[in-house]
Amino acid sequence: MVKVEVVVDSIDDALAAADAGVSRVEIGCAPELGGLTPTPAVVAGIAEALAGTHIDIAVLIRPRAGGFCYTREDIDAMCLDIRLIAQGVDSVVFGALTENGMLDLPATKALVNVAQTFGLQTVFHRAIDVCVDPDNALAQLENLGVNRVLTSGGRETCLAGSPNLLRWLEHYKSLTFVPAGGIRASNVAELHGVLGTEYIHAGPRRVQHGPATQWGNVDYGTHTVLDSEALKSLVNVCREL
Question: Which domains does the chain have, with CATH numbers?
Answer without folding.
Answer: 3-208+219-239 (3.20.20.380)
